[in-house]
Design goal:
- 26% of the residues lie in helices and 27% in strands.
- It is an alpha/beta fold and 466 residues long.
- The chain folds into two domains: 245 residues, Rossmann fold (3-Layer(aba) Sandwich), CATH 3.40.50; 140 residues, no CATH class.
- The longest helix is centred in the middle third of the chain and has 16 residues.
- The radius of gyration is 23 Å and the shape is globular.
- It starts with a strand and ends with a strand.
Length: 466
C-alpha cells in the first residue's frame, strides 16, 4: 500500500470511501416517493419551470414572488411541488476528471478544494459524495490518489471532494472557522448533483480527528463517518459523555491501531494516545448504546491503519436517517446549532471560546461531575423527542428556536402539541406551506428532506407557525 508522509508518522493519506450507486429516486415530503409509473400524474411543465426559476433566483424578494405563483398554481398542495423538486435540474454537465476551486471561508481566507468527477457523470442523476480530510502536512490531492489506488474503477460511482488546509472540523476551533464545513458542503451540493442522503466523511490521523468532530458537530450532514487513526478531541475528557451521544442517529466506524499510543512528539502519551482515547470511546459507546463500531487492529501503529474492507463497504452504503424522532446535540458555536428537525435561529449570549475552566472545589465534591456540570453551563444544547402527536424539546443558549416538521415525523393532518422545557408552547393544527418548504430547501440546497411546516419560538414565548 502506498503511504504518504504527514505529521509524526507515515499514514495512508486521508481515507474517504463511499459505496453507493447514484439513483434518480424522487423524494416527497418526509421520505422517498414510490417510483413513478405510467399511472403517475403528468408532469406539470409550468410548475417545473417555476420551481427551476425559484432556485435560480438569487434575490430573496424575487424568490418570494415566485413562491406565491407556485402556491397559486398548485392551490397550496405541497405534494406536486415535492415531486417537482425531485425532477428539477439545476446542475450543468461536467467533464470527468479533477478540478480545483477555491471556497471563500473568511474575510481573508480561502480553502482549496479538489473535486474528482467520475467517468460517465450524468448531471441529471444524483451521486453520493465522498468528503475526505487529510492528515497533518497533507493535502486534498492525497485523498484522491489514495482512493484511486484503493477502489480502482469503483471510484467512478462517486463524486470525491477533498479540501486542503481545512478549518472548523474540530471542537477546538474559532466561531468563524466553525462555519467552514457546512459552507463547503452547501457549495458542493450547489455545484454538483449530490445525493444528500448519502454523504460520508472519512479522515486519517488529524483528518480522523476531523471526521470525529464533524460527526458530532455536523451530524445532520452525513449518512456515516469513518475516522481512521484519529479520535474525538476536546479540551476536557469530561466533555466526551456529553458530546459523543450527538451521534445517536449517525453510524460511525472508528478504526485505529493497537500500538498507536504516542503523542504529537512521538512520546508515549499518559492517556494512551489515540488507542487509549478510542478505548474510552468504545466503552462509553457500549454503555450508551451508540451506533459506533470500534475496531482496534492488533500489532498496528499509527502509520498503516486500514479498515476492514467489508465493514467499510457496509457503512458506505448507509443512508441518512430520515426520521430521527429523538435527537441530542451539545454544541459550541452558532454554526453548530442544528440537528434534524431542531434548529437554533438565534444564539443566546456569547458562545464559550476558552479552553480552560477554573475549578474551585471544597468538600467531598466529585471533580468529574463538577467539570461536567460546568461544561453544561458553557455549551449550547438542542434536544428532543417526537412521540405520536407530541413534541418535546430542550434548549440551552437559544434565543430563538425553529421546529421543522414533515409527514415522516408526525401526522400533519392532526393537531400537535409542542412542549419546550416544562411548558406547552404550541397546541393545535398546523398547515403545510409551499413557501416554507421551498425556502428551507433553498437554504439547505437539499431536495430530499423537505419541511413544509416550521414552528418558531422565542425565549419565554409561545410558538407560532411561520
Amino acid at each position: 500500500m502506498t503511504e504518504l508522509r504527514a505529521g509524526r508518522s507515515a499514514y495512508p493519506a486521508v481515507l474517504l470511501v463511499l459505496a453507493a450507486w447514484a439513483s434518480p429516486v424522487v423524494t416527497a415530503v418526509g421520505g422517498p416517493l414510490p417510483e413513478l409509473t405510467e399511472q403517475a400524474a403528468p408532469v406539470n411543465e409550468d410548475l417545473d419551470r417555476l420551481v427551476g426559476d425559484y432556485f435560480g433566483e438569487p434575490d430573496a424578494k424575487a424568490r418570494a414572488k415566485i413562491a406565491v405563483a407556485i402556491t397559486e398554481l398548485v392551490e397550496g398542495d405541497v405534494k406536486p411541488v415535492a415531486e417537482a423538486l425531485g425532477r428539477v435540474q439545476l446542475w450543468t454537465p461536467q467533464s470527468p476528471g479533477e478540478i480545483t476551486f477555491e471556497l471563500k471561508t473568511g474575510k481573508n481566507r480561502v480553502t482549496p478544494v479538489i473535486v474528482r468527477i467520475p467517468k460517465g457523470y450524468d448531471h441529471t442523476q444524483r451521486y453520493p459524495l465522498i468528503l475526505g480530510l487529510h492528515g497533518m502536512g497533507g493535502k486534498g490531492l492525497d485523498v484522491v490518489r489514495y482512493l484511486q489506488y484503493q477502489l480502482g474503477e469503483r471510484l467512478d460511482e462517486f463524486i470525491v471532494a477533498a479540501p486542503t488546509d481545512y478549518k472548523g472540523a474540530w471542537f477546538r476551533t474559532t466561531p468563524e472557522e466553525a462555519g467552514d464545513p457546512p459552507a463547503l458542503l452547501g457549495e458542493l451540493r450547489r455545484r454538483y448533483h449530490v445525493d444528500a442522503e448519502r454523504v460520508y466523511v472519512v479522515g486519517y490521523s488529524m483528518g480522523g480527528h476531523g471526521a470525529f468532530g464533524m460527526a458530532t458537530l455536523f451530524t445532520d450532514e452525513f449518512a456515516a463517518a469513518i475516522p481512521i487513526a484519529g479520535t474525538f478531541v476536546s479540551p476536557f475528557r469530561q466533555s466526551l459523555p456529553l458530546i459523543l451521544p450527538n451521534v445517536r442517529n449517525l453510524p460511525v466506524l472508528a478504526v485505529w491501531g493497537e500500538e498507536d499510543v504516542g503523542d504529537d512528539k512521538r512520546k508515549v502519551s499518559p492517556t494512551g494516545g489515540i488507542a487509549g482515547e478510542n478505548r474510552r470511546v468504545k466503552r462509553l459507546a457500549a454503555e450508551l448504546s451508540l451506533p459506533i463500531n470500534a475496531v482496534e487492529l492488533p500489532g498496528v501503529g499509527h502509520g498503516n491503519v486500514s479498515p476492514p474492507v467489508d465493514e467499510m463497504l457496509e457503512f458506505l452504503q448507509m443512508r441518512r436517517d430520515p426520521s430521527q424522532g429523538a435527537v441530542t446535540h451539545w454544541f459550541r458555536y452558532p454554526a453548530h446549532g442544528r440537528i434534524a428537525w431542531l434548529r437554533q435561529r438565534k444564539f443566546a449570549g456569547q458562545p464559550w471560546q476558552g479552553d480552560q475552566i477554573t475549578v474551585m472545589i471544597t468538600g467531598p465534591t466529585d471533580v468529574d461531575e463538577y467539570i461536567t456540570d460546568t461544561l453544561k453551563k458553557k455549551l449550547a444544547y438542542l434536544g428532543g423527542t417526537i412521540t405520536g402527536q407530541h413534541i418535546e424539546a430542550e434548549t440551552r443558549k437559544s434565543a430563538e428556536l425553529e421546529v421543522l416538521l414533515h409527514d415522516g415525523l408526525i401526522d400533519l393532518d392532526q393537531p400537535i402539541t409542542l412542549k419546550v422545557g416544562d411548558k406547552i408552547r404550541y397546541e393545535g393544527e398546523v398547515e403545510r406551506k409551499v413557501g416554507t418548504m421551498l425556502e428551507i430547501a433553498y437554504q439547505d440546497w437539499d431536495f430530499q428532506r423537505l419541511f413544509p411546516v416550521r414552528l418558531v419560538m422565542r425565549a419565554r414565548s409561545n410558538a407560532w407557525q411561520e
